[in-house]
Amino acid sequence: MSFSGKILDWYHQNKRSLPWRKSINPYKIWLSEIILQQTRVTQGTPYYLRFVEKFPTVHHMANASEEEVLKLWQGLGYYSRARNLHATSKIVVNQYNGNFPNTYKELLKLKGVGDYTASAISSICYNEPQAVVDGNVYRVLSRYYGVDIPINSTEGVKYFKSLAEKVMDINDIRDYNQGIMEFGAIQCSPKKPLCLHCPLNESCVALQKGIVDRLPVKLKKTKVRNRYFNYLIPIYKDANGNQFTNLQQRKGKGIWQNLWEFPLLESNSILDIEDVDNRYKEVLDGIGEVELIEFNEVAIIHKLSHQHLHTKFWILNTGIQIPNQISFEKIKEFPVPVLIADFIKAFKF
Fold this sequence. Notes:
Layout: H1 3-14, H2 26-36, H3 41-54, H4 58-62, H5 66-73, H6 80-95, H7 104-107, H8 115-126, H9 135-145, H10 154-167, H11 173-186, H12 205-209, E1 225-237, E2 243-245, E3 248-249, E4 260-261, E5 264-267, H13 273-279, E6 291-294, E7 300-303, E8 307-318, E9 326-327, H14 338-347
Parallel strand pairs: 1-8
Antiparallel strand pairs: 1-2, 1-5, 2-9, 3-4, 6-8, 7-8
Helix pairs in contact: 1-11, 2-3, 2-8, 5-6, 8-11, 9-11
């Protein structure tokens, strides 16, 4: 039996029951693929279900605000995916009359849709013979064929795409593509793959050579940048006991674009209380003298793909109304990074 035939047989016996597999609606497949791009199925499934409930069609998402989409996305990270999700929903509604393009080439024109996502949607929804290549597929192909070309190199991307096209089953592309991705997630997993009971074990080059744990090969990651964040949380209590603070929206092209955070004092190293007392007016002018309290003595290290954020939170009690103040009750309505959400929970706003 051929490679693709064995993948299909395995899939038909072992596929998981996942909510997006009950449909070939391109909106739902697109939504699931964007959510799962850098997210595990167990983490992504609840998000998918919440999105479908709140935005049952692409029209519902297009009519929502970006903040609504970002708030629902909160906790998944890589927030550019959420911004692209919202932008694409508007494109589909306004330029395609609410109907997703039905070819790989047309799908590629959508914001945030690359080779993998376009291949997945076109094959699953429209049976177009396009090979998907994601992390799971890279792993299966590199191990089975014993290929040590780095998967994140230009050469590797081209090689594995070509290889995936050669071995795919064009007659049952919908199930084959889902099958090889599922196979990589469950059978040929990154750690502790189930080689003993694998239907491909008799012809797997990596298994025969004893190099399963060395494949696939990846080029070394970009050097991690350390940054030092000091979040200033001004707190004002009025005569009626109502409490207020301040949030600011991040702009520009950096991390967390358009999300909200407390006023930020970024430094070149970890600051102590005296440093913050001398510098808080750089970002919080107009609140006068404050009672400064260190919330966390040890900096929290929040790890992003290429950055480590060494973060401390500082409470600034003030007797003067805060410019653009927000009541404690409304804090949870804003889309914020996980780092800020965790603090809000810990502080019990």
